[in-house]
Specification:
By secondary structure, the chain is of the alpha+beta class. The protein contains 16 helices and 18 strands.
């Protein structure tokens, strides 16, 4: 194969045109921010909210928000926006890149709120480079994405040549290779912006490669030759971007619900994000999914949410009464819940994998999934002694963990050593992750392994955390269990597990105990707690009175 030369003997080209993607809606902004700048859906909405509110640095000659409202499914751009975009395009790129009349987009989704605008910069003349020195990097990158996309929607159509290069090889030119791709004749809107893809590899297979311009007869150097056998691949896992796209295409939810939906399934650990940013189901997620599919198939059906959204639209239009919709749903749903509580056996949904026998106790060792995720259990519920439990760390998988690995997890808690006062330093793993413990004090381990951490490193971690806490502490009132601390957003009061804001007009360093208690008393959280206590006391008093009355009646 290496003998002879590689020569370009033919070029096939078909010219085509390409139009820019539509301006951003909530869902397309979330997708593109995920693809191009690696933001999660939740991060995108938080930063977009900051840009909308103008919660950024002080920008010269500009006040207020930087973008229009970011919760929208409209593709409309106002005449003011398109006119401003035209001026910027001609100034930045030249008149050949502008349009004679604005390009108009129409939303395909049913019920799209066309009265709103798409997401765009408030002032098209305010370039990303103008704001960069005054805003955070993430704000700059998202604004830049919106500015470029909006500008591209009003730029000239790109002219592309779909090209196939035919290459001969071998001693007698008996082998033929092809390289397919594109050649840009006129970049048009691509000069400013091109849309990202959920699957870059698939994009390259779809003739998205840009080929160099070379002439027929050119001799080519062989740099690399890959021989591959292709197999059918299963559908790839969803990323946050592709999941938003799927939700939108199925009519599930509204622009404002995509971010909380995707955040919730991650917070509850039904899915985890892999290294390549794919969303993979956890054992807990698989159990919950199996249970819902078996017992509530009509609720988890893709069409259910879309149908509810249609009902809500009809309610808004006055076509049906909301009471009927709610009665129709909750009547059957409540009946089904009551039935399942009596008939469903939780044991049917326990994922259990037997690993072997513990040589010390002679009891069975198994990997299971519980309320807080996968864990190892020694023993059974039928034993006289309670079974022993330990959580399975993230780097191990319940489907592959071995007996030796499982038994090793039970070496915690372990005494790492002693501090200068002769107090034991213990390493362990709790519900919120690995930690060190000295008497009643706990120190979270962010990077170190509780199974292998040695005494010198443990003392170093404890010292670092103690020093950080000392710097963050302004004052303490131990008898009332009150601390005045410095947090991410400034000084605040901490009493037990509750935090209280300190008014801006008050100097935290000068607060007395009386003033601190007054701030706590005036806080709405304190009033709510007081009401709950009062309500509880009244309820208890009523129950006590009722019991006494019943007792007297019985005696009579």
């Amino acid at each position: 194969m290496n003998q002879g030369v590689f020569k370009l003997f033919d070029i096939e080209e078909k010219q085509s045109t390409r139009n820019p993607a539509a301006p951003f809606t909530t869902s397309t902004l979330q997708q593109e921010a995920s693809r191009k700048i690696g933001l999660s859906v939740k991060q995108t909405m938080v930063i977009a909210q900051q840009l909308y509110e103008g919660n950024v640095g002080s920008i010269p000659n500009h006040t207020g928000g930087l973008i229009t409202y970011m919760r929208t499914d409209s593709l409309n751009l106002s005449k003011v926006a398109t006119s401003a975009a035209k001026e910027v395009i001609e100034r930045e790129y030249g008149k050949e890149y502008s349009l004679s009349k604005p390009r108009v987009y129409k939303a395909k989704s049913k019920g799209a709120q066309e009265a709103h605008e798409a997401i765009r910069p408030v002032n098209m003349a305010l370039k990303p480079s103008d704001i960069k020195p005054y805003v955070e990097n993430a704000q700059y990158r998202l604004y830049s994405l919106i500015w470029k996309r909006t500008l591209a929607t009003q730029m000239a159509t790109a002219k592309i040549a779909n090209t196939t290069y035919k290459i001969s090889a071998g001693k007698n030119e008996e082998f033929e290779f092809q390289s397919k791709g594109q050649r840009i004749i006129f970049p048009g809107f691509m000069k400013a912006y091109t849309e990202g893809s959920d699957n870059p590899e698939a994009a390259l297979d779809s003739n998205e490669k840009i080929l160099p311009t070379i002439k027929v007869g050119t001799t080519l150097n062989l740099e690399k030759l890959d021989l591959e056998q292709n197999f059918t691949k299963p559908p790839s896992r969803y990323t946050e971007a592709s999941l938003v796209k799927k939700l939108e295409s199925e009519g599930i939810g509204r622009p404002s619900t995509y971010a909380p939906t995707i955040s919730t399934i991650q917070q509850r650990e039904y899915v985890v994000k892999t290294e390549d940013k794919k969303l993979a189901p956890t054992p807990t997620g698989e159990i919950v999914n199996s249970f819902l599919v078996d017992h509530f198939p009509e609720i988890v059906d893709l069409g259910f949410t879309a149908k509810v959204e249609e009902d809500f639209d009809e309610i808004a239009e006055g076509k049906i009464a909301w009471q009927k919709v709610m009665q129709h749903f909750y009547g059957d749903f409540k009946k089904s819940i009551n039935e399942k509580e009596k008939t469903v056996n939780k044991e049917d949904y326990l994922q259990v994998r037997e690993l072997g026998i513990d040589p010390k106790s002679g009891k069975p060792v198994s990997a299971r999934v519980g309320r807080f995720g996968p864990f190892i259990q020694i023993g059974t519920k039928d034993d006289e002694e309670k079974p022993k439990f330990v959580a399975i760390p993230e780097h191990l998988n319940m489907d592959t963990i071995t007996l030796d690995e499982a038994l090793f997890l039970f070496t915690l808690p372990r005494v790492v050593g002693q501090n200068e006062a002769g107090e034991d330093i213990k390493a362990n793993i709790g519900r919120f992750g690995p930690y060190l413990q000295v008497k009643t004090k706990f120190y979270s381990l962010k990077e170190d392994d509780p199974y292998t951490i040695e005494l010198p490193r443990a003392l170093e971690v404890i010292k670092q955390i103690d020093e950080a806490k000392a710097k963050a502490t302004i004052k303490e009132f131990p008898e009332e269990k009150i601390q005045i601390l410095i947090g991410q957003y400034g000084p605040y009061i901490k009493q037990g597990r509750k935090n209280f804001k300190i008014p801006k007009s008050v100097e935290a360093e000068n607060l007395t105990l009386e003033e601190t208690l007054e701030i706590i008393a005036k806080d709405p959280k304190s009033k709510t707690t007081a009401k709950k206590r009062s309500s509880t006391k009244k309820s208890t008093a009523k129950k006590t009175t009722a019991k006494k009355t019943a007792s007297k009646t019985t005696k009579k």
